[in-house]
Structure formats: C-alpha cells, structure tokens
C-alpha cells in the first residue's frame, strides 16, 4: 500500500474509531450511498479481464462446483468455477414451479416431518403445510478427515430456524430439521474431524425459553442457544445456552472445539444498547466436556432436547468467552488447523485465536486473552476471511469495498512486536461492498489457492440498469500467483451470502434414478399395496373418496390419455418416468389446479389434491422432451 493510500485509509479509520461510536453507526447506516463510494468511486474500468481471464470455451467443463446459497430466495445454486455459469438451482425452503418442490408429496414429507409442533399448529391455522420461504446463508458439504467427502451438503434457513440436508448424488434435499428454542438460525458449519458428524448452528436472536408469552418485554430473560444437530439422523443432539447473540461459527480440525462470534454482549434490543461496549467476544465450545455432561445426564431436558447452561455465570467448563472488539462477524478456521479468525466488522481488525491454547484455557492454566495470538488492522468493515493454503488469508472489507490479502504467520509475528514484518500483502478493489468471500477448498485441509470469489452486495453501475433493485455482483479473482487478479463479474439475484467451492472430482451426482431411491419409497410402497407395477401399469384405483391415479410417462406420451374422478374426491396422481435416457425429464402440469412437478428419468413423483372443480382439465408435460412434446397431454374429467 502506498503511503498516500495509507494516509487516506487511516483518516477514514479515525472516523470509525471506537471513541466515535455515533459516527460509526451513522456511517454504517448509509453504507450504500456514502462509504461505498469512498473507494472505487465511479466505474472501475481497470477491472476489465486481463490475460488471466478464465478460459472455459463453449462445450468445455468447469473444474469446480461452487455451492452458492440463494439468500432470500431460500434456494441453493450450483455455479461452475471458473466460468461462473449458473448450472442449476436446488430448491430447498422455497416453493419451486419447475420441480414441484413444496407441492409434491415427496417434498412435502421432507419439508414437514422435521417441523416443531408449535410451527405445525401455526401453519395449520394459516391453511399452510409448511413455510414457503427461507433465507439460506451458509451451505457446506460434509467432511471426512478434514476434507469433503461428497455425501451431503447442509444449509441454514435463518428466518424459520431450519437446517436442510442435501443429498449430493441427486442434488435434492432429503431431510429438514427445525431448531427448537431458536429464532433465526444463522451461522452454520460442520464438524470436520473425524467426520460430519455435528452440524453446528447458531441461533442469532435471543428469545424467551419457552417462548409462550410469559416473558415478553423483559429482554434480560431472553436466551440464545448454540445447537449441534446430528448430521446422520438430522435430530438435535444438544444445545448450549450462551451470553450474547451468536453470529457466525466454525470449528477446528481435531474434533475438540467449536467457536462462534457473538455480538450484543450487553444483551440489549436497540442498536444503541447492542453496541454499547468496546468488546464483545468469541465464545468457544469444549465439545468433549459438553458430550460428557450430556451423557452424565447433567443437561436439562427441554422439549426433548438436552440443554446445558454455558453462560458465564454458570461457571461450567462447556464454554469460554474470548474478548474481541465489538460486533465481530465472520468466524473462519485456517486450513492448517492451527487458528481461527474473528472478523471485526465495526473494528478494522481481525483477531487470530490459536486452537491449541484452548486446552490450557479450559484447564485453567491461561486466561482468555492469552489465546489471542494476533490482531491485525486490515481495513474498514472486515466481514469474512478465506485462505489459500499457502499461509495467506483474504478478508473482505465491506466498507472499503476491498479484499485484503495478509499473511497469517507475519500477522502473528507483528502482534508479538516484530516491527520488521509487513503482514498485509495486497488490497484489491471489488465492486462493491463484499460480504463473504471464499477460495477453492479453503475450508478443508486441502486448500488449493486457485480461485477466490467475492460476493458483493452492491453492483451499482456494473451492469445495465434493471430497475431499483440491482443484482449482486459475484466476482472471480485469480489467487494462484503472488497478486490477486480480478477476472470476472457475474450478476446474481438476491442474495447469495456465501459459497463453497469443491473440485469436480469430489462430487459425483447420478444421471438416472435407481428405482429403489428413498425419495419415492412411499409411492413404491403404496403401489405395491395397490398391486400396481409402476413401470408398466396405468390404472385408476378408487378407495372410497380417495382416488389413486397411476401413470407412466415416456416421450411423448403419458400412459393415461384421460382419467375420470368425482367432484370432491381426494386425488393422488403418481407419474413414473420410464424413460431410461440421460437428461430426459418429463413434467406433469395440471391446468387450473396450481400443480406442476418434474419427473426425472426413472423417478416417480406424486401430488395430492381435491378435485374441487367440475369439468375438463388438461394435464401436460412441461419439460420440452420430444418433437411431439406439445402433444404430450391428457384430460382429467371431473364429474358432478
Ligand atoms: S453472513 Cu451474510 S455476509 Cu449470514 Cu455469513 Cu456475513
Ligand atoms: Cu414429456 Cu415434454
């Protein structure tokens, strides 16, 4: 950094000093218009792709799968890296017309069986079966021995406190669990060693437990819990009550500790109360001590879940609170397994904590502060940090609209007082206001330091104007050399918070379903009871007021060109795609009934509805499967 830049940065930093809290808050409230234009004001022509632009020519394949969260859309997206092409979307918490997710029996079973009783009751009163929105932030593939094993991917729903598991062989959700005693499940990371294992979830907001109206405005009696979900059963394993609001989380590479950044240590409910302290903390969790306590029956069972008290005043050895500057945000474990980094957000610093010191901390040999081995001033608004596996870290600076590359061991040396080292390697402008960044394999022991994506919340002038709500700007940066080089802009609909990037050899999805897939096991079982061969039979079975319609689909024909039901019947249509051809998906779309679903090759999908409309209704295939695809249709006749 030139001394000129340094001066500029310093003067801005002064504005955001802890003594000028009001200035900070005022600044934070106007980020988009104000501070965002400080750096890289106007269009940044210099960012035009240079010699390092990634070459993925038409017909060529990407090297990596990027798993993008979809934010407020409630979905996941798969982005090819380095092309940045959007390859597909995985419906998760959203209702999806293309796939029928949220409407088919198969998806509704998954979306409803993990709901808490109180949610079920609420939804019923609203005439709903499940929530039809979600807010996905953190998507993470499962681990074995510190690296991805290609089994599952887990993702949070911040708004309705759920966690979903995606099967990576079919890229569909197979389990959803709703977290009790929590509103706003935010931070999510997975146990890395020996395997996943636990899914660690931060509930962000503090709530009364139970939230039954007895405690309302007395916010000092609200609680926040850290939850471990068993990734195999998708049931809550245990919860630990903590002080403050949990934000992001991560864990070590040894299966011993997890950590979470906490804001709002004053436990207030207004912005002023929440930031009324110089320091908050990173809370660290002693997994062995927690497991032992749960096993020994020391937890309080609340709604069938063991809950331990990890608040400071309880003085148990489940947790310790390591002080860090106020309102930290990202929490990121280094791929060498030695440290985690708490990102300052309101403070221009990152704080480095050494995992190994936690042994002595929990043994009472050292103090919380002694676990901090580095604190580096990186720039304004540090949110998240990622790594290249060569000892460097990359921190997003939300306010500066930059990525700061710094060296971890140099930062530790500088903190010890070595004035000769300059830990900061480079600052790169991004366009604009980055939240997460993530590098290829950065959250595994095999971090490979090839590509980095910066997920920028503001795109402003980077794309042609699409109206007041602009796209986000996901930028691809080459980090394989000494310098970061920006090579690509890609627009994204609101709001991918985070991305994980995995080499394609570690992910092996199937092309065609196997007939014994659990996704449609219920349909197979019902057909067996009805003595229907799903691959060959086309039959209508009446069972009182229930009617089951079984039909095949094979391009360009449904097995039934019509079926007849009576007004008021409860109708279930089972469609089995008997085509055994890669890419040959059919749809079943029933006119005037709000029903559409996809049936992948060799899959069965089903949907249930009441035949409440008398008359003739067409069903048609909505996936362009054949030259006679338009003719792939039939009629439902509903008689009075
Ligand atoms: S959070 Cu969104 S930018 Cu939910 Cu991971 Cu930091
Ligand atoms: Cu089947 Cu179009």
Topology:
Layout: H1 3-15, H2 21-29, E1 64-69, E2 76-81, E3 86-90, H3 105-113, H4 117-125, E4 139-144, E5 147-157, E6 162-167, E7 172-178, E8 183-190, E9 198-205, E10 224-230, E11 235-242, E12 245-251, E13 257-263, H5 271-274, E14 279-286, H6 287-295, E15 300-302, E16 305-309, E17 319-325, E18 331-333, E19 339-343, E20 349-354, H7 357-362, E21 372-377, E22 382-387, E23 392-397, E24 402-407, H8 408-415, E25 424-429, E26 434-439, E27 451-456, E28 472-478, E29 485-492, E30 499-503, H9 521-529, E31 539-543, E32 546-554, E33 557-558, E34 562-566, E35 570-577, E36 586-590, E37 595-599, E38 604-610, E39 615-620, E40 633-639
Parallel strand pairs: 11-16, 32-35, 34-40
Antiparallel strand pairs: 1-2, 1-30, 2-3, 4-5, 5-6, 6-7, 8-9, 9-10, 10-11, 12-13, 13-14, 14-17, 15-16, 18-19, 19-20, 20-21, 22-23, 23-24, 24-25, 26-27, 27-28, 28-29, 31-32, 32-33, 35-38, 36-37, 36-39, 39-40
The structure holds [4Cu:2S] cluster and dinuclear copper ion.
